[in-house]
Amino acid sequence: MTWRRLTWVLATLASALLVGRSAWQLSGSRTRQLFGELVTRVPVGDSLIALTFDDGPTAYTDSVLAQLADLDAPATFFMVGRAMEQHAEVVARVVEAGHELGNHSYSHRRLVLKRPRTIRSEVERTDALIRAAGQEGEIFFRPPYGKRLVGLPLYLTRRDRPTVLWDLEPDTYHRDAAGMVRYVLDRARPGSIILLHVEIASREQGRLALGEIVTGLRARGYRFVTLSRLIAASEELGPRRTSLDPSLRGNRELPDPYVCGSTAYPPETGGCRERPEWPGARYEAQEAGPRSPPRPSRPAAAVIPLPRTRRSSDAS
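Above: the chain's sequence. Below: its structure in token form.
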């Protein structure tokens, strides 16, 4: 293989890796996507906030329902279709309690680089189960793991449906209940969408934090509504704006999260290292404290010109 051909091969591989990395980061972005409407937080004229749960129904959903009943707080449950079939009676109790159902796909697979028919099946099979449970009105869709790239946003756009994500995810960044509560109370804003995984067995700390999150936000003047009510309140102010709108950028009091690999970390963590996965969780931010100050740069070395050697050809 000639040097020129080897250089071309290496450049092609480097370009492919760069494109692949960029695509993977884009697939998990909370502020950008290639097509359609992306909702992470909505502009509202009142202190409204939405509580959303992913990955149910499970054996723990009833205990969450009991908590919500005691707190008199509505929520939106993004459910997995296969789990709905296995826990149909639990789904019925969620609807009877006045909560809202959302679509979290049928099998909870990442819908990135999937065939159009696979995406259609994942969405529409769960839509049918939600309708059968008695849900009326718009059904909102949240991608598994928040991942999407081309096919899923295009499918939703053609059906005039937004991609719904979140702007607060306490159990991604904290394992303990106190940390989750502090995270939400410090960052909540009108129109925020809170994501919790309290229906998963390993998320006991999230279930412990739920009550304090609700009471703490209420003490600050927030009112809890379902996701559809939150978006309806936004539409009353004018045409629906999405999280792609520049006026909604930076939906935290802190700067936008930066990305380390495929994981978003809040800037105050000061670190970009990933911890090992713990059961049922994605990588957590490492609270490493402030970064160490940069080393002082060395002064540039002085360049001393060497005397020019006189050659015989220089003689006049």
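Residues 29-248 form a domain with the TIM Barrel fold (CATH 3.20.20.370).
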